[in-house]
Sequence to fold (524 residues):
Amino acid sequence: MGLNFGMHSVTLIQVPDDPDGFLSADQLNWSIAATNAGRRAGRACWARRLAPALGARRLLLLIMPLYALGSLAVGLGDHFGWTLSGRVAMFVALGIPEGSVRGYMSEIVPPTAPCPLSALLSFMLYLGQVLVLAVAPLLRWQVLFIVVGVVPAALCLSGLLFLPNSAKWLLSRGHSEEEAVRSIQFFRGTQVDAAAEVLALVVVGQLMLAMGLNFGMHSVTLIQVPDDPDGFLSADQLNCALLSFMLYLGQVLVLAVAPLLRWQVLFIVVGVVPAALCLSGLLFLPNSAKWLLSRGHSEEEAVRSIQFFRGTQVDAAAEPGTWRPLLLASIQMVQFAWCGGATLLLITAFVLDPVQISLSEYQRATLPAAFAALVCVPGGIIIERYGRLPVLRLGGVLSAIGCAAVAAYFFLAAEPQERLGWIVLAGAGLTQVAFVGMLANVAFNYVTELLPNKTRTSGANIVLVVMNLSLFALLKMYPLIRDGIGLGGGFVIHSLVSLCQVFFATFCLKETKGLSLEQIQHLF
Fold:
C-alpha cells in the first residue's frame, strides 16, 4: 500500500512531462482519486462476504493475484481506461482484505504490545513510499507500476505459506481448541497462557417514560394554549418549547388524558407522577454493570446487576454492542483523513509544487514520507507509555499548528514566499509528526480495539470504507479547493479539523491503555 501511495506523487511528477503521455490532467486526477473508491468498493462489496468464511490468510492468498494483474493492466496499457481500471483493481485487491488483516493482527498480537506493532506496520507503509520515490527517477512510471504490483504480491504469497490462521477465527469456524492453542503459541511462544482472554460484562438500560410524557405535552399545548382564555404564551414562545422527535408511549398516554384536564393541571400530573414513580422504582434497581466495573466493583456484583435486569439464565458474557463504537471509530477516521497529514502524504507533489525551495520534485515528494518513516515507530512507543488520549490530543494540537503554518505561507505575497519556503517545510514536518507519530497510530488501534469480537472484522471494514470515502472526497475535491480558496484555504480547513480532533478525543473517547480487547469493549 505504501508503494501505491508513493505512485501518486510519481504520476503527478512524470505524467505531465511524458512525451508519450496519454493522460490529461483530469484523467490523472481521476486515476488517483479512484484508488480510494476502489478500496471502498473492495470492502463494501466483497469483504463482508469473503472475510468471515475464508479468514485473513486465505483471503490474501486469493486476492494477491488480482493485485498483480491490476498492476500489469496499468503498466502495459496505453489508454486511460486501462490505467483507471488497473489502479482500481489494485486497490480493490488491497481493500478486500484490509479490515480482515487488521483484525487478524489485533488477534495475534500480545495484549501488551498493540501500539508498537501498529507503529511498525505504519513504518512499512511509509518505507514503501520512500522506496518507490527513490527508484522513480530511474524508471518510467508504467514500468514502476509493474514492479510495485508483482514484487509485493510474490513476497506476500510466499510469506503466507508459513503463517497459521488466528485462534479466534479457528474457534469461530469449529476447529479444535488444540489447533487454536497452537496458533497462539506460534505467534507468542510456547510459554504463553492461551486461555488468558475472557469476555467481560456489559449492560445498557434507560427509562424514557417521563421524557415521552413531556414530548406528548408538545401536542397538548399546541391544541389547548391557543384557545386558552388565560393564555400567556405567544406562538413563538410555544414553538421554542418543541423538540424534534416523539416517544410514542408518552404521547399516547398524555393525549388520552388531555380532554379531562386543563393543560396546566396536566403539566403538574406529568411532572409529579413520573418523578414519584421514578424515585420509588430506583430504590429497587441496582447500578448498571458497566458503571460498577468502571468504579472498581467486583465482577460478581456486575453479574448480579445483569441478571437482575435480564434473568438468571442470561449469558453474562454476552457480546457488547457495536453501533456506538462503530460510530466513534468512523468519526475518528473522517477526522484522520481531513486533518492535513493525508494531503501531504498522498499528493505531496501537488501541494509542494508552488513552494519556493531549492529541492527537486522527487526530493520534495520524498521528504514527508521519509520523515513519517522516522517518527512512526517512536510514536508507537510513546503511545504505549503515555496512553492514547493524551497523545491524540497533543497530535491534534500539533497538526493544527503545522497546518496553520502551511496556510500562512500561501497567504503571503510573492516576494516573502521566495524567502520563507522553510515555513512550509517546518509546518509540513510538524504536521507529519502529529499525523504519523500520533494520530495514525491511535486511530488505527481504535479501529480494532473499540469493536466487539464478534463484529470486529465487519466493523473494521465499515470504518475503513468510511475512511476511504473521506480520502476519495479529499483527493477529488483538492483541485477544486485549490482553484476556489487556494492551498492556504485548504490548510485552514485542515487546521480546523485538527482542532475538532482535540475536542473529540477529550469528550467522546476513553483511555484504553493496558486493557485487553474485551475490557476495552465494556468502556463503550
Remarks:
- The chain has a mean pLDDT of 74.
- The chain has two domains: 2-163+319-521, 209-287.
- The chain has 22 helices and no strands.
- Residues 39 and 91 are 5 Å apart (CA to CA).
